[in-house]
């Protein structure tokens, strides 16, 4: 599913060189639920964005669903993101001008694979699945933190992605809502979607099939005590 | 994508409302300028067409007076010897001629100001006679007059000029030109009126025998109006010709001051608005960096983001353009009479084709300004790295 080798990402803060990825290797098979943990600024979000094609590494190679994403054009990379990868960010990332349903359907419209009516129907079904069927017409400002996260997850699933990338999806959530959201992720994973989740919350490690830690720009495996 | 643009415009009503007003001002200035020019031009062409003449021959020394009579209906009395009539008739390409005599009245009972009397010979006339025939009326009889649309008294009532009483037998349709304040009578009655004026009028009318003020010329189908005009001026001394294009040019010159101010307003508004709109668009892009990042993560291409930002500005410009055109059109129609009076030019609503052309041109220019202003912000937003965009900004 994913094979990243020798990833280096360098940028500068003034004259200070920052290297969040420093020869990172990462391999993930289809159907895995991988948790990437690490301290803030350790480079875990950068790795997630490199895998998602949202930023390019300084050096290294990345294969995602069999495609060398560094060799893809902007349009090809956008199409890959649209059809194969779902994103859930730390912030909900919903457009305030659209309703929950329209936010979810937007992914379908951008992908252009389905008509508007079909997109809206699938969006409604997805919102019902995440328990927000009755709030489909509500704008994001009328949704709670947990509801916003669940809407964002529904949006990420809109185009039947084989890979779901989630960046701190349980940040700012209370314990009950965190559990609801993680149960949802586990359910999605059990249906066959590969999930890579970045977090610094080890309490959710039990949901993952594998945990790795980002340290000094490299990944090290973490043994889980069941 | 259109829905997203529409929602985004509605979501920021104050800022986008201000932008729409700016575009409306640009459109209104441009539209008004071209509307006035087209309205005046079409009005002149309509008058010449109504007179049934291709060329109007006037005394060389009274060109300005002739234009004043025809364009604004300013009463004037001037003549040249009617010996020019057969000379004009003999010019190659001339099909038909009609001499007319212009007489300014003193104060008339019909109107607060003196009016223009135009004496015609019904046997040679091709101006009023076709109109009478079209309206199933008898030829103009003794002491009968046809009046322009702005002459107040009704058909059937009497008017007195130089002590001579005439009966109104018809009223012309409005033209927006000097014809509206003119009164047509028979040449024979004009001479009778002049003779009687020695006894009946405060100031007698001096109307020498064998004169004409203007000779209306119809050109035959095979001849070019311009060529015939040149030949008349060459072969008939002491004459000047007025054609519809010459009169349009005169009117355009008269309007130049106003249209230049309007064009300048549009230009200044564009020059001021362009960087302001660009700056506002750039601010919008900065505000929406995270939104752009999210859209990119969802699979939007650079081209989609470019179209989103550019499309928003173009739609705002189009709304402003339509509002500007509609509002200025309404104002121009409501104040058409006042504008014509102040500018002293004939003015009517331009014909539909002119109106369509002016509206389309104004809209295209306004939308182009909107597109131009948003070009740099749109390019910049398309080039934003999705990861950087997501990390910064607010949604």
Question: Which residue ranges of chain A are poorly predicted, with pLDDT under 50 across at least 5 consecutive positions?
Answer: none
Strand order of the largest sheet of chain A: 6-7-8-3-9-10
Helix/strand class of chain B: alpha+beta
Measured as a percent range, the helix fraction of chain B is 55-70%
- In CATH terms, what is the architecture of chain A? 3-Layer(aba) Sandwich
Largest sheet of chain B: 9 strands, mixed
Structural summary, described in words:
- Chain A is globular, with a radius of gyration of 17 Å.
- In chain A, a hairpin with a 2-residue loop joins strand 4 and strand 5.
- By secondary structure, chain A is of the alpha/beta class.
- Chain A starts with a strand and ends with a strand.
- Helix content of chain A is 32%, strand content 28%.
- Chain A has helices at residues 44-51, 74-84, 100-111, 116-129, 145-156, 175-190; strands spanning 2-13, 16-28, 33-37, 59-64, 67-68, 85-88, 163-167, 194-199, 210-215, 218-222.
- Chain A has 6 helices and 10 strands, in the order E-E-E-H-E-E-H-E-H-H-H-E-H-E-E-E.
- Chain B has 2 domains: 2-44 and 250-391, no CATH class; 52-242, no CATH class.
- Chain B has 13 helices and 11 strands.
- Chain B has a 9-stranded mixed sheet with strand order 6-7-5-8-4-3-10-1-11, with helices on both faces. A two-stranded antiparallel sheet of chain B has the order 2-9.
- In chain B, helix 2 (13-51) packs antiparallel against helix 12 (352-383).
- The longest helix of chain B has 44 residues, at 244-287.
- Chain A binds chain B through residues 46, 49, 52, 54-55, 74-75, 78-79, 81-83, 87, 89, 91-98, 102, 106-107, 109-111, 155, 159, and chain B through 1, 3-4, 7-8, 10-11, 290-291, 293-304, 385-388, 390, 395.
